[in-house]
Amino acid sequence: MPDAPAALHDVRVIDLSGEIGAYCTKLLGDLGADVIKVEPPTGDSSRGVGPFYHDQPGPEHSLYFFNLNTSKRGITLDLRADAGLDVARKLIATADIVVESFRPGELEALGLGYDAPTALRQDIIVTSITGFGQNGPHAGFLAPDIVGVAMGGIMWLAGDPEDPPNVPYGFQGYISASIQAAAGTMMALYHRDITGEGQHVDVSMQEALLISQETAMQTWDLNKGIRNRTGARTALPFPVPGIGPYQTTDGWIWSYLGTPGGAPWTDVLKWMEEEGASEDLSQTPYSEIIAKLDIRYLTGLAIDKDGRERDGPHLEYIDQVLRRFYAARTKAYLYEHGQGRRILIGIVSTPEDLANNAQLNARDWFQQVEHPDLGETLRYPGPPYRLSKTPWRITRRAPHLGEHNAEVLSELGYSPSQIEAFAGAQKAS
Amino acid sequence: MTENGPLPLDGIKVADFSWFGAGPICAQALGVYGATVVRVESESHVDALRGIGPFPQGKTGYNVSGYFNNFNMNKLSVTLNLNTSKGRELALKLIAWSDIFLTNMTPRILERWRLTYDDLIKVRPDIIAAYQPMQGFDGPHRDYLGFGAVLGPITGFNHLCGFPHRPPVGVGTNYPDYVINPMHTLVAIMAALRHRRRTGEGQRIELAQIESSVAALGPAIMDYTANGRVQERAGNRIAHAAPHGAFRCKTAKVTAVFGEQDLERWCVIACFDNEQWAGFRAAMGNPAWAEEQRFATLDARKEHEDDLERHISAWTAEQSPEEVMQRLQARGVPAGIVQSGRDTLQDPHLKQRNYYVRLEHPEAGAGAQDGPGFRLSKTPARFAMPSPCLGEHNERVCKEVLGLSDEDIANLLVEQVLY
Which of B65, B69, B187, B99 is closest to A386 using CA atoms? Predict the structure, then answer.
């Protein structure tokens, strides 16, 4: 639907937000907003973050930057200089939304705090995305992603108990802050559509993450219990067959046998029998245990010491046979054939598996984005959601540094000679 | 900005046919910003979260789960048995009343219950119908089984998160269920609401949970599609900062459920540039090891990161993470406590921002719930009602929304339709 309307076709966003907010403004841009990303003349810091195209570092090669900055135009402004500030003010006066991530107070010091845009345009929405929000004792703290995921509680839960707590891959603090910020911005925009009133959206990366602690906070609140990281172990104090990561010939699967919703363990045994790999599991005492092997039985064992002593070694044996069954097959085979039998097995996908994923590809999920300067079309992650009438769409690749300086200045009414003078001044500074 | 001022979604009605995390959290966000949300449940298919703890001490049953009660505030609960034709009729009546329909049930069950978009627009042509299937409504894996626990593995989180010498254990939770999938859905719903307000036209939203989740792993995807590289788990280290990791601090004694216990404490520290590294050295009192040439630049520190981390761990070992954080942040060095659930609840910053919400629940008491994920200055989120007991609002919804009489209601109870 190339001509379908975009949900945000009439919305202009000035993006002063840097790395923490880049995914927020991508979400707005991919929904059709005119996003103008403002970078310092030296470039956004995320241009220096890898991976890089063909492993060649450089501001125009960051795949990280590419992916986070689709559907945006880009200009460079030195906000420490009057000329740059002047352009910023003029731009903000044309904007519906400003997204920013300065430390609280810094934008005010530049004369661009929430009050300033409001003076320029009364109904403006300013979305501030920071580590800890606009007020409170930690508001001024430095907060790269790792500080957010630590203070937001999700890191405590991640990893093996014998290792340090783990920072989840992919700057998930920034991602969560950005998604919450996009949702908050859309909420504020809807309110403005109805009432004409703008407002300030305050997003704290820490708060954006807290709900992802699952039950850790309540475990303390209700029971004074500490929920710790458990790695691959289940909550049960003995080895449980068929739950967790298992090695295959070419990688890993995650197996979740005997859980509600999936086929019972007896179906797993049948599958192993059909493939001639059940060894002696069809015999006593294993077959009897397999017949009752579900979550109810296992949780019962947790409080039944005699039962545990009686069945524990058999459970371990069943697990060893299963381990051999999995280890002799490929992860794709186990995923597809397990799922075909309603046996709950998930493939532990590598990036390569995802790129080749039959489901994602059947649904044309990945997007082709042209990069003429690289002489290539690159394959990007696709839409997080599909809207039938106002589709998500990458409208353009990420901007080169300062790519739209002249275009945007000209839209603001600058003459060609003024534009040239501005460029010269910025280069000199 | 008063307690009773208007909210953005005043007057918007939501039929919430979702369960577990991804759907209910989204619907709750609609509710706290003013929408009227009716959560449809059934005793024949109780939301599993109602059965999973933690529970308040000494209490059991479907209404007291701290897990469930964190995701369903500001909702009315009605129980409808959709395996009955009368139950499905009432469901369509509820949908005809609604502006937004939301579900994360599987495509198979939605087809069986006749709750597809095509079914819905017959009773409510301008409905905004948001579906959150695991894999999508088409494609060869459409009917694959899955929920949070296998979503992490399937979408790449398990392969990419963790330490290289370990199996792909994941991040310890059903992570995409809590922000990525519900809040992506909220963004899409708000876009659709905006379009409907302008044009009168509703639409169908499909958020395949695997697509929404993989979208959050962009760098690894692009490293493969552009460079052919399969990234591996790399622990806590990243290429452009050193140190960048978690460091063990002084063990604390806490009084927990089983009496006094030792509690591991950790802090994170990161230096992205030489200025931060200089601040860190100064905070440590400029020890001799830190002045060595092999730690002088980022490249050098990356090269000797094992040694670097050993030295830092020795420095943090005798301090609390609070001390480390305060000391380093005062010097312009990024640092933070690796907070447990206990720590977040006691976090002085969050207290000052009044983050946690405590609503008196008729059965569960006043447990803490997560507050808003974003804050609006003029229309702040309003947490007005605790999560409902199962079927708590059957009568109210039947009368006020479905227009049923007392007699109808009595019959529907007997026939196990309101069930």
Answer: B187
How many other C-beta atoms are found inside a 10 Å radius of the C-beta of residue B294?
A: 12
Q: Considering CB atoms only, which of A64, A136, A208 is closest to B349? A: A136
Give the chain A residue whose CA is nearest to the CA of B335: A147
ipTM above 0.90? yes
Give the 3-state DSSP-derived string for B332-394, with helices as H, strands as E and coil as C. CCCEEECCCHHHHHHCHHHHHCCCCEECCECCCECCEECCCCCEECCCCCCCCCCCCCCCCCH
Q: Which residues contact B356 (CB under 8 A, 6 or more apart)?
A: A217, B345, B350, B368, B369, B370, B371
- Element (DSSP H or E) covering residue B36: strand B36-41
Bridge partners, residue B75, by sequence: B37
Whether the pTM exceeds 0.90: the reply is yes
Say how far apart CA B124 and CA B119 lie, in whole Å: 9
- Contact indicator for A40, A77 with CB cutoff of 8 Å: yes
Cβ pair B159:A387 closer than 8 A: no
pLDDT tens digits, A48-102: 999 999 999 999 999 999 999 999 999 999 999 999 999 999 999 999 999 999 9
Identify the three-state secondary structure at position A100: strand
CB contact under 8 A, B193 and A136: no
Contact A254 B205 (CB under 8 A): no
Active site residues per annotation of B: 177
| Whether B324 contacts A150, CB under 8 Å | no
CB contact under 8 A, A344 and B8: no
Distance CA B355, CA B345 (A): 9
List chain A residues with CB under 8 Å of B229.
Answer: 51, 351
